[in-house]
Amino acid sequence: MANKITDMSKIRKAIKFYCNGKSKLFISKYLSLSRNTVKKCISLFEVLGLSFEVINEKTDAELELLFSHTTVESISPKLQKLYDFFPKMERELKKVGVTVHHMWEQYIALNPDGYRSSQFGHHYKTWGKRVNPVMHMNHKAGDKMYVDYAGKTLFIIDKDTGEIKEVQFFVAIFGASQYTYAEASMSQQKEDFVSSVENAMRFFEGTPAAIVPDNLKSAVIKSSRFEPTINEALADLAEHYQTTILPARAYKPRDKSLVEGAVKILYRRIYVNLKETKFFSLEELNRQIWDLLDAHNSRKLTGRPYSRIELFLEDEKQKLSPLPQERFEIKYQSFATVMQNGHVQLSQDKNYYSVPY
Questions:
Q1: pLDDT tens sequence across 140-187
Q2: What CA–CA distance (Å, rounded) separates 295 from 347?
Q3: At what angle do helices 35-48 and 117-131 cross, to 10 degrees?
Q4: SS3 210
Q5: Model-level pTM?
Q6: Integrase catalytic domain: which residues (predicted)?
Q7: Mutual orientation of helices 8-19 and 60-67 as an angle, nearest 10°?
Q8: Coarse DSSP helix, strand, coil percentages of the chain, rounded to the nearest 5 percent
Q9: Could you tell me how far CA 232 lies from the centroid of its own chain?
Q10: Residue 243's pLDDT is what?
């Protein structure tokens, strides 16, 4: 199976049959697969610790990465004990100051006859590639909140006119736990963007050390590799919540890969369930989004025995700074010429104001 690519639909069926209690011999004959291929497929399925539901949600390309390009080691009790240690280790590595060597010392203290440090590191990399086929960054708990808009929009219908209005789909995610927030907003203008970012922090009940937006105009007025110019309203929000803004670098997709990955997942778990339904207000749409979001955050992470919300509450929430009692109030500045009648016009509210002599 490592040398010849197997049809991924057969892989799905093989795992489904196995989960339903069918024998390897039956699966081999029914799907016209070699017994060795079936054994390897099932062995890898057991090593990864995935449910059939998770396997069924993956695309053919993702399954090919998991099942076609990975050789399966015979899992000894010693190696299985090591693999059982890795999910805990992955969580610990998200804490500041924790290293792989520190975790090996903990492992060897519990298992004196276990693997030495070099083999320990090798097996951790192998396990990491199996549960995370795409390379990922190591995020520290409470460090960064990534925010972005989905490319595809949603719609609401005006009750009075029947007009279909396009609305934006905002997503925020914490790096370490992947705990996610989403909402619909009327636009990507700075007022709506700042409000969505604030709503996300209120949802998470804490402030991260930094907020990482994309280079949209509501966040960054002028992008720069070294010193980007932050939109004034967003900078004021950061000052109010005692955090900082770290815009993703232009043409550096890995800077925002986490939130883009979250958007892709939410397309499958939220967007697909909403696009055929008619909504007549933003509040009605958001209620449905939040119901689906709760289910998403409560699902077990791929290859791990815990969910996003469990990981957030146990490891990340206590690392966040407390929220200020007062919500942020956006401020506007305007430069105007005094007219001959001694007044200036404020374009924001289209009113005239007298100027002291």
A1: 777 889 888 888 888 998 888 888 999 999 999 988 788 999 999 999
A2: 44
A3: 100
A4: strand
A5: 0.61
A6: 129-332
A7: 70
A8: 45, 15, 40
A9: 27
A10: 92
Residues 6 or more apart whose Cβ sits within 8 Å of residue 339: 345
Dist CA 83 CA 86 (whole Å) = 5
Three-class secondary structure of residue 309 per DSSP: helix
Calculated CA dihedral for residues 234, 266, 255, 175, nearest 10 degrees: 80
Which residue do the tokens 């007549």 mark? 280
Amino acid at 350: K
Whether 243 and 211 have beta carbons less than 8 Å apart is answered as yes
Contact status, residue 328 vs residue 194, Cβ threshold 8 Å: yes
* Residue 17: both structure tokens together: 């049959």
Q: CA-to-CA distance for 84 and 81, rounded, in angstroms?
A: 5
Count other C-beta atoms under 10 Å from residue 139's C-beta.
19
CB 170 within 8 A of CB 110: no
Place of tokens 């900082």: 244
- What is the rounded average pLDDT of the residues 256-277? 76
Contact, 258 vs 146, CB < 8 A?
Answer: yes
What is the residue whose two structure tokens read 């086929």? 133
Tokens representing 333 are 């500045």
CA-wise closest residue to 54 among 306, 301, 258: 301
Sign of the torsion formed by the C-alpha atoms of 191, 193, 199 and 201: negative
First to last CA, the chain: 86
What H or E segment, with its residue span, contains residue 103? helix 100-110
Beta bridge partners of 354: 343
* Residue, of 239 and 224, whose pLDDT is higher: 239
- Closest among 104, 195, 197, 98 to 139, alpha carbons compared: 98
- State how far the Cα of 252 lies from the Cα of 17, in Å rounded to an integer: 43
Q: Are strands 244-245 and 210-212 parallel, antiparallel or unpaired?
A: parallel
